[in-house]
Queue: 2 jobs
Job 1
Amino acid sequence: MNIYVCVKQVPDTETKIKLNADASGIDPAGIKWVLSPFDEIAVEEALRLKEKNAGSTVAVVSAGPSRVVEAIRTALAMGADTGIHVDLPENADTFMAAKAIAGALKKESKVDVIFTGKEAIDDGAAQVSQLIAESMEIPCVTVAVAIEYGAGTAKVKREIEGGAFEIVETTLPAVIAGQKGLNEPRYATLPNIMKAKKKEVKALKAADVGVSASDQKIRFKGYQLPPPKQAGKKIAGDAATQAKELVRLLHEEAKVV
Amino acid sequence: MTWQTFVFIPIAALAFGYSGYRFKILFRMMKAHQGKAGDRLKDVPARISTFMANVLGQKAVLQKRAPGIMHFIIFWGFLIISVGTLEQFTTTIHQAANFEFIGDPAYRALMFLNDIMSLGVLLAIIYAAYRRFVLRPEGLGKSVDANIILAMTSSLMVSILLMNGFHILGVQPWFQDAMPISRAFSEVLAGLGLSQDTNAILGGIFKWIHMLIVLGFAVYIPSSKHLHLVAAGPNTYLRTLSREKGMTPINFEDETVTQYGAAKVTDLSWKDALDYYSCTECGRCQDLCPAHNTQKPLTPKMLIVDLKHNMYRNKANLLAGKHDEVSHIVDENVTEDVIWACTSCRACEIACPVFIEHTNKIYDIRRNLVMMESRFPTEVQSVFKNMETNASPWAFSSEDRAKWADGMSVKTMAEDQNIDVLLWVGCAGSYDERNMKVLRSFASLLKKAEIKFAILGKEEQCTGDPARRIGNEYLYQTLAKANIETLNRYNVKRIVTACPHCYNTLKNEYKEFGGNYDVFHHSQYIAKLIGEGRIKPTKSLDATVTFHDSCYLGRWNNIYGEPRSVIQALPAARMVEMSQNHDQAMCCGAGGGRMWMEETLGKRINVARTEQALATNAEVVASSCPFCMTMLSDGVTEKGMKDKVRVMDIAELVDQSTP
């Protein structure tokens, strides 16, 4: 099988996000970049599928500035075979990223399945999976927690609202977006880390995949940090007094009741 | 020459020939190991001196009083009696080839010693049997092998006494007055009323019995745990000499290396095989093992025995050089649980009378599991990831590294490099709330002593110790090299740290990568400042204090006195020791990366250690390690003693007492 995984490089959750001087973007200094955790799940799923089907290959695709090649290398160290990097500007939106990735995939001779994470943990947009599928005119199943593979089909258990699950069946190729619980991503072995340094990562320009500046649908007008968290308040007294005070605060200060 | 000559020579040749053949196989198996053992020959004077002390002087064996004395007698007894046995061999081959040529007083002395020792050894063996069958200490276990050896050695001594007794009656040798035990024994035998000729013949028969058992012994030894008789001496000579030993680095630049750590016994080194040969299964390692004592599946003794048996099972592959076909170490005996249970407290190595090194084997097996097979407790993965992205085992941003010092105007190296000493904070001191307070106390003390110090702040990264002990040498080296680069860039000379794990790594393990610093643990530094009068603890503590030894301070670095001297410098502090202290102290359970692993098997180690602390009725449990602090605090809370017993770092105690 020709298996593809789309990944995004995101700031680590512990990184203190700072804005640049004119608040036109995030200050890249001091950011620790990692492979988005849901995308790790997608890579793991691809590797497990490969291990079950002899002769399969896993290719990792990422679109963004040159730094995202590190995220591709991380996936290669986990065991993926090759990488494709589409060079996009720092602030590329979801539409542009999806079009670039779909463009790169369309250039491949055969695509059997595409895995993604259900969302990236930085912007949390959860759009790129569906947009890739739309652009390639193939089905898309998101928030997958279990996948059963058939001949040219996949039965996917997906999480829906209210803590319930639904099971859908799709033909392949399709885009399947992984949710936490689908698997436990592996920790790269050292021989694989060493090998990953030498694996091929194909470099594509935006123009190579038919992407131009007009594909940027969102214009970023400015950035703001969320207001700093206020210190909590401890309400003293017995239960009745505490309840009374709580209602008063919710009504008068928080204005929610 | 008599008929005896022609009977004895072929029997002896056969026995020694077979024994020699078995030893050759053992030697070849040892040589089939591919791992590196390091230089085991340099520093000859120190090696000779440890040999004298611990082999001839039996120092390490004597750490345990009664069994030690027992072994001392058996050891020296056998050495001396061997001379007599050799004479039996030579006189059997050629009657006149006795050792009387050494002259009268010398020969008499030899006979005297032989005589005394044959009784001494017999008594020691009776004690050994009493210990094995009546006292039955848990660590000794049951062993058919040991019973066979006991039967053989006791028969050897009895046959000597009978031989000499009848010999005195039958031949009346000129030196018989030098053999008081045998003479007294011969008087008993005289009661049998046998003729002089019969006595002489019986003397000869028991001589043969004695010689045949000796030959049997030679044949039996190579397959017995009593192989230590041959192996323990060399193992002591070739031991790792320094207490402050760092782990062996792996050279990741070397592309010819394709195996990291030990998947198979042959990935370990010849010295590890010599360790197995030296093990006599005395169980001292197991007696002190915190994992074993809290019902974990690890016992250091069985680890060595299981590795030895794994090697024996693979004998054919080892001898044929078929490394690829050797079976794996991790199997139904040495399970993953066994390997992950180790806290690397090193109590086993300190207890071992023949200097077996258990920890390096566990480290090597872990390295294979982690780096080659990606097999480790699941909770460890996030630890590795945190260390990779945030240079800390806990998920915190480097930006918050100096938060513990908020409001204390502690400078970073970037701000001020004119310092006496660099304060290495460590991840626990940076991010763990309880340990942040310890750092504040220590910084306050340094200020009171007017020491110029700075920290690295966000430039400090985890030393890599947790990764290294868990088996991720690659991650360790990444962090170590980054830290060394930073420290060398600032031209740092002296470092003080409140964390024994950081201390051990900075002091003993950065050398290999070009980091050479004068490193102090804060207990040493505070002791020094008190000694110099720069800190004067004057406020009364008025409490009973017990001190918990951190493994990485004590057993790994031999620091026991300084933290105790610091506590004793506190006015009105009353020191009490726990039942297990100094190098016998029990680990808190956090070493070897266990700090970041769930403890699901058996009793919790920290609770067991806390119970020992509480048994002293101390009001303060003093610690000198952030992980011990966490473990003991949790233990005290678990035992419901939080309101009565305080767990305090020594720096906090001194700071409180210093105006």
Job 2
Amino acid sequence: MTDNEGYLLLSLPLIPLGAAVLLMFVPSGERTLIRIVTGVASVAMFAISVYVFFAFDYRGEQFQGVLAWPWFENVGFLGDNGVQLKVGVDGIAAPMVLLTGIVILTGTWVSWKQEHRSKDFFILLFVLVAGVYGTFVALDLFFWFLLYETAVLPMYLLIGVWGSGRREYGAMKLMMMLVAASILIFTAIFGIFTEAGLGTFDLPALFDATYDPTFQKIMFPLIVLGCGTLGGIFPLHPWSPDGHAAAPTAVSMLHAGVLMKLGAFGIIRLGFQMMPEGGEFWAPALLTLGIVGALYGAIGALRQTDFKLMTGFSSVSHMGYVFLGLGTLNLIGMSGAVLQMFAHGVMTALFFLLIGALYDQSHDREITHYSGLAKQMPVWAVFFVIAGLASFGLPGLSGFIAEVHIFIGAFRAYPIVGGLAVFTAAITATYLLRMFARTFFGEADPRWSGVGEITWAEKAGATVLSISIFALGLWPAPWIDRIAMGLEMGIPEVLS
Amino acid sequence: MSDLNFEYGLLLPEFILVGSAAVVLMLDAFRADLRISRNLLPAITVLGALIAGVASLLYLDRDPTDFAQLIAVDHYTTFFRILFIATLVAIVLGSYEFVNRNITHQGEFYALLLASTIGAIYMAAARELLTAYISIELLSFSLYVGVSLAKNDTRSGEAGLKYVLLGGVASAMLLYGLSIIYGTTGSTTYEGIAAALEDGVVGTPAFLLGLAFLVGGLGFKASAVPFHMWTPDAYEGAPLPITAYISATSKAATFALMLALFGIALDAAKADWQWMLASLAVATMVVGNLIAIQQTNIKRLLAYSSIGQVGFMLMAITTVSDASGSALLLHLAGYLITNLAVFIAVIAFYNRTGSEEIEDFRGLAETQPYLALVITTALFSLSGMPLLAGFVTKFVLFQAAAEEGFLWLATVAVIMSTVSLYYYLKVIRQMYVAEPADGDSRWRLSPIAYLTTGVLFLGIFLVGLWATPIFEAADGASAMLFG
């Protein structure tokens, strides 16, 4: 990727922002126009994301597509290059950009049937996406954090206004927990800037700066807990099941699919890349939280009878794998963590899409209330099985590639943890197969005779997500090359 | 003393403001005879303010100078002249409908606003203790009357009385503090005090006593905890535009004065007052934000939230330095824009509904989506959410404190900022999540309300996304104090 292609990276957050501004001027009743604007924007984002992913050269520079514009320079406590609008991706960010493109494309399609204040919904959704993209491509700490917070900002209204069930409770809990977690990140950023003493928020410069080992040991946990909350790290995960259960379909998709990855991404960027020694010191704790979260989420999911709550707990479990992988401190385990971020993203987006498709017709999310759905909705059932099989790591699907990396990494680091991780996968298989058995087979329940097959938009979205699941599962090389390169160049000190 | 500079031209913008105030008062007195429209008074006020604003720009290219060593005319003064005059214009434009309906003494209303703006400007520009004191009193007296202008509301008179009594005590405290500082240092000019401090006044009991009275008096004017008791009542009782004015200009002027006083005059005595201000800052942030949670009246909510905001600003005075000075000025600019947006939107809401209860905002997103958007944006900005002014200015402000070794204070500030999000969300919840009351239908805003809120709304985004020009201006202004 050449540096001039940085304009493409810049366009990733700007397209959704521009579309959001454009939508403000579209009359609320013009549903076709709203669809055109959002459709064009989502396709453009998807196309650029795919291009960025494949154009990223895993034999090239660490950061590619680097462009910078000065923002604040030599004012106040800031020196040269104080705050810049700086974009660029590395091997870790490139797959995340692709993931965001896939999820927003499909999320936009399934939201078209949203009738209630659909314009406002899309405005907020696109602001959220702009924040997500921005965090992945920003190479300036100030903008990184600004955009990270931007991704959280619209959540309250998205869930509170368009959600279902205990939406007000879920929205407030999610918002306050995430913003409270940001306190820790704020503190860490203030500390890092002062400790580096460079007068700049330039990320590569801050990566190269040296920090006192004691300082690193104090600040690293702040990043892990602060960013980890958004990533659903145990025990700071309680917002996740409630928030996801209450959120509307596309928001659940984006939130579980992409936003939670921002948390893990933050731990890599601000944690390991910035403070490798702190990372080495705290890695066992991170690994422990990861495996506990994985087990806890899986057991929690086992107990749930609500589709969305079950998927919410399953997300906590799968994100636990991510933290587990990061805590192994070896290349294969950490690559697995990043792979899992991608794999879980597409898989969980597919889950939420399908659950939303069912819920919109039946307005019931209680698993025990259903039976024989496979006869009524065969296409829906097929996609659901794909998502489920990917979730517990069937070979040939995305989940397998990610989990096998993490398991090997875990066995190398601490064999017992590897064993527990495999055990977790078995629990995952249990709750998913039990759900399939209960809802798909048996006599069709007359209560749901009105429930029909999913719409074309939903089929299209599910197809795109399924293709991604198969792509990573069958041909993982493009992902592994980029991720391994990103890790080797980004955190050489950490990898054992 | 013969080389004092008595160039009256340096004070031109304030002469224009005084002139406008006089014209407004006279026209109001003879309004019945001259048969002039009521809209003429706000028009003259705005026009006078705009001319004064243009006149302030004339000093941009001049070297920093002063008037008789009392009043500095430099970038710092120009920064606040522009800021306060812009605030005045916004408040007059945003409230003239309100004034037409609710205020009987309109000439006084506009003349008082003009006069208090002069007081505010000289609070920033003063480089001598008595000048500073007189400027504070000019601002305060105008506001004592302003608070009690809502004659049809009994709360207004009560608030006015409370404000004037407590304000008198605070003034006495301040004056006593100033006199002790004069007694120990032998000078009333900031530079004279700074020079005297070099000679070992620092740390003597008398000087400490003077500092304590000074901090208490200024703390009252800034409504810092525990000197904040007047604030909620004054906010609630005052007519809305005056409330807006107190929360904007009066607050910013106090901080402009404190920054100059502590930065120039008392910098050498940092060890003596830093702990006082740090503890005031913590108490103010914590108490203001926690009590705000329980409020059900929008004016009281904003009163307590503004107390919380004062805590953040006190942090910059605590860590006074060139960097925190420019951060404070940037924050003040962003805070004024945001706060005015909330208040003018609330004024527009009050014009329509006559209510100040947070409950009555329910369903505003359905009945007046534009206003709901403005209020939501401004509240999110006050709580420091990104893309908006609050994020950038608070980030810079807190980072500046951390740079000076006060990371713990910055952390307390971020925590309290998060608490503030909670009570702002309660208002936002009413507007967006709750359904409108039965019978409420869509209503329209007046064009002028659209205009003022629209400009401020864009301003919030402008500062949030491209604060560079303001930050550079703030940096240039702050450099005047710290050389």
